[in-house]
Amino acid sequence: MPEKLANTTIIMEFLLVGFPDDWMLQRMYAALFFLIYLTALMGNLLIVTLTTTDGRLHSPMYFFLKNLSLIDICYISVTVPKSIMNSLTKSHSISFLGCASQIFFFIFFAGTEYALLIVMSYDRYTAICHPLHYETTMNRGACVQMVTASWLCGCVYGSIHAAGTFSVNFCGPKIVHQFFCDIPSLLTLACPGEQILEYAFIIASFSFAFLCFLFMIASYVHIFSAVLRIPSAQGKFRTVSTCMPHLTVVVLFLFSGLVTYLGTNYKSTSSPNLLMSVLYSMLPPSLNPVIYSLRNEDMKLALGKLLG
Q1: pLDDT above 50 (res 226)
Q2: CA-to-CA separations, 253 to 68, 155, 193, 238, 258, in angstroms, rounded
Q3: For residues 40 and 278, what is the distance between their CA atoms, to the nearest angstrom?
Q4: Average pLDDT estimate for 14-26
Q5: How far is Cα 151 from Cα 115, in angstroms, rounded to an integer?
Q6: Can you give the pLDDT at residue 165?
Q7: Distance between CA atoms of 159 and 179, rounded to whole angstroms?
Q8: Which residues of 70-92 are buried (b: 16+ CB within 10 A; e: fewer)?
Q9: Contact 177/185 with Cβ under 8 angstroms?
Q10: Residues 130, 226: contact at Cβ < 8 Å?
């Protein structure tokens, strides 16, 4: 039998060992994860409720924001509940199908969020640079089509990477040095030379994502050029303030992902690696509701109305 086939392992489950071995530390992390998860759920559900029930929040911007909150709820729910349950039950296993599902849905919702952030930048561009055509361009049908396209792009993105990741043969141990299944950790378990297809998918998807990022940059170049032409300082501030939440969310989303993938050692388990993973898997869904609500007067009024 060829050596490659002899070393190939038929894996029915993986072991997630992202947490330290110390039982007290595991419980501490589980409690922290639960608090972060609860905060993310409450914040995003509150935004969904407000943007659905308050008539003043039925504009395109808040329609996109509602979808962003729905995505964040799904995004954080893919990984955190399973991690908490494993920690509390002292079980580290996840089935092969469960791991594949985590890969697909995690990339699915991450890709959908990125696509929606691009759509939201176009919404701000149209509102500021072409205000007279805003209602025509961003009509209800167009907004629904843009959101639908974002979800479809995320689904295709997730399907491609899940298929690419699990097209490999796995050699060696089934230990994933992470608290959930992610692509870089799994590729470290692949047989030598088996990762070429997924690496090709990663390069292609990053190239496409970079082109989309350039589109977002171009939108904001036009936006700030239009802002500079506004005569009053108050008008400039008011216009820029409508863009700042979106800009902050984009920076948080991209920065956390880049720092994690560039700074994590996927072949070892350590607290810094765990914190890096938390940075991009849990921080954006938890902070997005705060970012969009903190200085938004319409959201504050809607919340006050809801609370009576």
Answers
A1: yes
A2: 12, 19, 31, 24, 9
A3: 13
A4: 73
A5: 8
A6: 86
A7: 22
A8: bbbbbbbbbbbebbbebbeeeeb
A9: yes
A10: no
Structurally, how many domains does the chain consist of? Answer: 1
Residue 207 burial (CB count, 10 A) = 9
CA atoms within 13 A on the CB side of 192: 3
120-139 tens-digit pLDDT:
999 999 999 998 889 999 99
Domain span at residue 84? 3-306
The CA-atom distances, in angstroms, between 282 and each of 87, 118, 236 are: 17, 21, 33
Query: For residue 67, which amino acid is it?
Result: N
Q: How far, in Å, CA of 244 to CA of 137, rounded? A: 22
Distance, in Å, from the CA atom of 136 to the CA atom of 180, rounded to the nearest integer, reads 44
Phi, psi dihedrals of residue 8, rounded to the nearest 5°: -70, 135
| CATH code: domain of residue 41 | 1.20.1070.10
Q: Please give the structure tokens belonging to residue 248.
A: 């902050």
- Per the listing, tokens 């919702």 go with 109
Give me 17's structure tokens: 């060992």
For residues 277 and 281, what is the distance between their CA atoms, to the nearest angstrom? 6
Coil vs helix vs strand at 170: strand
- By DSSP bridging, strand 8-9 and strand 13-16 are unpaired
Q: Is the dihedral of CA 202, 216, 66, 32 positive or negative?
A: positive
How many Cβ atoms are within 10 Å of 208's Cβ, its own excluded?
Answer: 12
Q: How many angstroms separate the CA atoms of 187 and 164, rounded? A: 10
198 and 168 in contact (C-beta within 8 Å)? yes
Q: Which residues does residue 263 pair with via DSSP β-bridges, in sequence order? A: none
Task: Report, as an integer, the average pLDDT of 43-62.
Answer: 89
Percent of the chain, pLDDT > 90?
Answer: 33
Task: Report the C-alpha gap between 288 and 43 in whole angstroms.
Answer: 8
Reported pTM = 0.89
